[in-house]
Structure formats: C-alpha cells, structure tokens
Design brief:
Elements lengths: L3 H8 L4 H16 L5 H17 L8 H19 L3
Amino acid sequence: MLPIQLIDSFLLEYNVGQALLLVFILATLGALPLKSAKVVALNTMAFGVIFLLTPQSLVPLHYLFLGIALVIIGPLLWTTSRD
C-alpha cells in the first residue's frame, strides 16, 4: 500500500485528465492478457463516459474530445468482437 503523501506529491504535478489517461492506459494494458475484445470495449466505453463527465474546470478541453472519441470507438469495438 502506497502512502497518501506519495500519491499526493505525484498528482500535484499533473491535472486530473492526465491521471485519468494514465489509469485508462494501465487498465487497457491490464485487460489485454484476457484476450477479450469485449472487455477492452467495455473499458473504452467506461473511460469515455468518465472523460465526458469530468468537470471542465479540472481538465483541459481536449479531454472532452477524447471522451467523445472513446464513446464512439467503444461500441465499434464491441460490435466487431467475436468473443
């Protein structure tokens, strides 16, 4: 378990959008060994919604566009998966 001060000192240097992007990348990399395209699609859709619902006072505008792209790409991945 990491101490709270270590996490806080890491997050002070970055905005919320960058931290969410890091978590999205780590979650996607964690889902890849499952070899399930539907899990990756659900992960993509979930983070798209999270990026869309994050208040714009906390993140720059381009994270809203990333959320829109992920919400569009997620269902496409879901429908093209064979799992």
